[in-house]
């Protein structure tokens, strides 16, 4: 999959604000400050289509991007560290739960974790939630450039074990900095889209 075109579509909180066109959708999810915006920008070859914020928790809506006029990327709010009130966190939780459980266009979720650290409790909960609803997951272990190559295998093993990953879900080593894993992740996304179209 080669991305040649990307445009911002809309921001949504409620289902009636979601894009109405029937295109396959890939959601991108991760803990606040895990590097989700950097990963999206890397995938679509743009510097700031997904705004990189120094303040975790800046994304407060689901942001939809049209890719190659045929696929939609949905950037969902980061979970975990955001310094926001409990009330706002709860409303984000409801918004995301509604999206993940009711969105028929959704074919897969790219869950982004930090390769340097074992997945957090929030990461585990997110993965288990997606599996409970039988949503296919692609785990992107990012910030690989911050670790020596000799430690990659060991850290990937930890990610797999802590998340209790399903063997049908892909685990991809990624770095937005060096673009490592970009082609592999796009190929995996393409495969998921292909499967959904066949179904």
From TrEMBL:
Record keywords: Cell cycle, Cell division, GTP-binding, Magnesium, Metal-binding, Nucleotide-binding, Septation
Pfam families per record: MMR_HSR1
GO biological process, one term: division septum assembly
A GO CC term attached to the entry: cytosol
Gene3D superfamilies: P-loop containing nucleotide triphosphate hydrolases
Keyword Nucleotide-binding among UniProt keywords: yes
Similarity comment text for this entry: Belongs to the TRAFAC class TrmE-Era-EngA-EngB-Septin-like GTPase superfamily. EngB GTPase family.
Listed name of the protein: Probable GTP-binding protein EngB
